[in-house]
Amino acid sequence: MDKFTVLTAIAAPLPEANIDTDKIIPARFLKTTKRSGLGVHAFDGMRYNQDGSEKPDFVLNREPYRKAGILITHDNLGCGSSREHAPWALLDFGIRCVIAPSFADIFFNNCFKNGILPIRLPREICDALMDDARLGANGRLTVDLERQVVVRPDGEEIGFEIDPLRKHLLLEGLDDIGQTLQHEGAISTFEATRGQAQPWQTQIVID
Amino acid sequence: MAARTLFDKIWDSHVVERLEDGTAILYIDRHLVHEVTSPQAFEGLRISGRRLRRPDATIAVVDHNVPTSDRTLPIEEPESRNQIETLERNVREFGVPYFPLLSERQGIVHVVGPEQGISLPGMTIVCGDSHTSTHGAMGALAFGIGTSEVEHVMATQTLLQKPARNMKVVVEGTLGAGVTAKDVMLAIIGTIGTAGGTGYVIEFAGSTIRGLDMAGRMTICNMSIEAGARAGLVAPDETTFDYVRGRPFAPQGEAFEQAVAYWKTLVADDGAHYDKVVELRAEDIPPVLTWGTSPETVIPVSGTVPDPAAESDGAKRAQLQRMLDYMGLEAGQKIAGVPVDVVFIGSCTNSRIEDLRSAASIVAGRHVAPGVRAMVVPGSGIVKAQAEREGLDRVFLDAGFEWREAGCSMCLGMNPDRLTPGQRCASTSNRNFEGRQGPGGRTHLLSPAMAAAAAVTGHLTDVRELI
After folding, report:
1. Contact state of B129 with A206 under an 8 Å Cβ cutoff
2. Per the CB < 8 Å rule, is B256 touching A200?
3. Partner B contacted by A79 (CB < 8 A)
4. Domain Aconitase/3-isopropylmalate dehydratase large subunit alpha/beta/alpha spans what residues (chain B) (predicted)?
5. pLDDT of B49 over the 90 cut
6. Is B411 annotated as a binding residue?
7. CA distance A99 to chain B (A)
8. Chains A and B: how many Cβ contacts under 8 Å?
9. Pick from A32, A82, A102: CB nearest B146
10. Domain B17-161, what fold?
């Protein structure tokens, strides 16, 4: 996983609420066994006509947003399916940061696992950042994770909250499995203790 | 000790260790695996040289991609075939128990888990699938995870989690004729919205919930995620214990009695604190359905499609108009009477034997309306066989329904069961998002009985007219 430190990028405004993960990546593209290559299908239904041609009005089909690194939306981004293909598709497109007033829980979690920083900011601030984003290449935003600020084109800094453990993992680009395996002893102890206390716990064995 | 909720009790009993910032290493009892969200996780284990820690707590099944037609024929779509073959290679390599395509025990993972006694009260259960919330009906803490977390569970049998907040949804009273668990849950989602449960685990309580059978409770918990909650819960009771008793992977004999003694402690303490409480009266819930492309767009079947002009927020008004346009409906239009092209009875929400009986009771002696394609996709091979023993297959087939093999099917159209652009579907599934059942497809979510009513009349219909 790539580290997330400071990102300066074009931001794409997508002023919609309840953008579900089916919209970010429809189910028919989930047949891959890889994590890469999904960017071309990101927002497929919003982005392409049924003949495969681009819808010229969709923000990610317009310059300079084809190179967007930040996406700003309204409430409840990423609701619905748990598919991690949604953050994979965003990442493959080039999005490293998503900003919204609220996120669905599973999507929020999945972003962190892939080096994407999801930032919760109040609706009116998201709207102001979308106004910045509409300036296109002149409206680049900077996201500084260490300092926990979004820097607007006029230099104004907007603070955001992030869980300290998640911040650490993102800044270092760490995989949390290695971290959890350092607690192997505690996991084994838990299993042994519970096995004694709850002898009815069954194992799944198929002959 | 302070009074605890059911969620608190299950949570506390699975904390391996609390980290400095309050994150818990949470032990996972059951890991359900399917072909779509697991290949990258198995690949991750291989690349990092890690083992799968507890194959005996893991079960794999193919459901999302599988054809629901003749299973003895090769799978036509090469990518679907590849995903299924990849799972089969992975379960062999990592020694994971597996119900293959031709096994009677194959089916939708959220039907199979409870049916086999793999999902039990008091457990923590995860799967790379948001509808894992279904298993909360057993009185288990069950939630969907992404593929990175799938790999984390495979490698460590734990997850890094922070505790959720507690919400209680209380439904009291007696359901009217033609009103089912699906109507109750859609009414709840319509009340609290698709983000109303974000950050919460919802415990469903009250006399109406207690009165539901396990299939009904599973329907309720299944759609917790459509209310934004990762997990739903119903406290285990005699209905639960009766359901679990004798299932293949449940504890048997003396062990079962010991387990029940423990499971009986899994109820909220008197005075336990809930961060949010929502109350509904069963008598206030009519048969309902969705009109739009979000599960919260719930209206009574006797109702009309809302008018975006009544919405003051500009962005919301534009979204409502977009929904109307996508769905091919007019503001103020009566929803009953809107013609349907397809009826889908199935999915992890409503494909259990009780659901099929409910639909069959409406279909019996009637025929599918001309021009309508109606299909029944049982939730598992076991459900299908049971229905056939009861003669339900004949009821559906004689009426002109398709009677298909088990799988996720047209809930999300990863297999060949898809809507074509513009087709309107009365569906017992859980999501009505744009394109969910196929690009351009239009979905109305409703109960199996309401779906059956739409099939035989050819339009969205108040099922009470057919009882």
Report:
1. no
2. yes
3. yes
4. 8-458
5. yes
6. yes
7. 17
8. 196
9. A82
10. Aconitase; domain 3 (3.30.499)
Interchain CB distance below 8 Å, A177 and B86: no
pLDDT tens for each residue of A28-82: 999 999 999 999 999 999 999 989 999 999 999 999 999 999 999 999 999 999 9
Taking only the tens place, the pLDDT of each residue in A173-190 is: 988 999 999 999 999 999
Interchain pair A84, B147: CB under 8 A: yes
For A110-138, the pLDDT digits (tens) are 999 999 999 999 999 999 999 999 999 99
A 81-100 near B (Cβ less than 8 A): 81-84, 87
- Is residue A64 reached through a cis peptide bond, with omega within 30 degrees of 0 on the bond before it? yes
Fold of the domain spanning A6-197: Aconitase; domain 4 (3.20.19)
CB contacts of A74 in chain B (<8 Å) are 315
Q: Could you give the CA distance from residue B22 to residue B53 in angstroms, rounded to a whole number?
A: 25
**How close A168 gets to chain B, by Cα (Å)?**
12
Q: A180–B156: do the CB atoms touch at under 8 Å?
A: yes
The rounded mean pLDDT for chain A is 96
User: pTM of the full predicted structure?
Assistant: 0.97
- Residue indicated by tokens 């059978």: B213
Residue A184, burial from CB neighbour count under 10 angstroms (0-12, 13-18, 19+): exposed
For B55-107, how does the pLDDT look when each residue is reduced to its tens digit (9 = 90+)?
999 999 999 999 999 999 999 999 999 999 999 999 999 999 999 999 999 99
| ipTM of the complex model | 0.96
Confidence of residue A207 (pLDDT cuts 50, 70, 90): confident
Q: Which of A33, A131, A169, A174 to mutate against chain B (most B CBs within 10 Å)?
A: A33
Q: Where are the domains of chain B?
A: 17-161, 290-466
Same fold, B17-161 and B290-466: yes
Nearest-CB residue to B83 (from A33, A190, A204):
A33
- Residue A115 Rama label (left phi>0; alpha psi -120 to 50; beta): left
Please indicate if the annotation marks B127 as binding a ligand. no
Any binding-site annotation on B348? yes
Three-class DSSP labels, chain A? CCCCCEEEECEEEECCCCCEHHHHCCHHHCCCCCCCCCHHHCCHHHHECCCCCECCCCHHHCCCHHHCCEEEECCCECECCCCCHHHHHHHHHCCCEEEECCECHHHHHHHHCCCCEEEECCHHHHHHHHHHHCCHHHHCEEEECCCCEEECCCCCEEECCCCHHHHHHHHHCCCHHHHHHCCHHHHHHHHHHHHHHCCCCCCCCCC
Helix segments in B364-416, DSSP class H: 381-389, 392-399
- Tell me whether residues B249 and A104 touch, CB distance under 8 A: no
Provide, as residue numbers in chain B, all residues whose Cβ is less than 8 Å from the Cβ of A51: none
Nearest 5°: phi and psi at A195?
A: -60, -35
Q: Which fold has domain B290-466?
A: Aconitase; domain 3 (3.30.499)
Interface check for A1 against chain B (CB to CB < 8 A): the answer is no
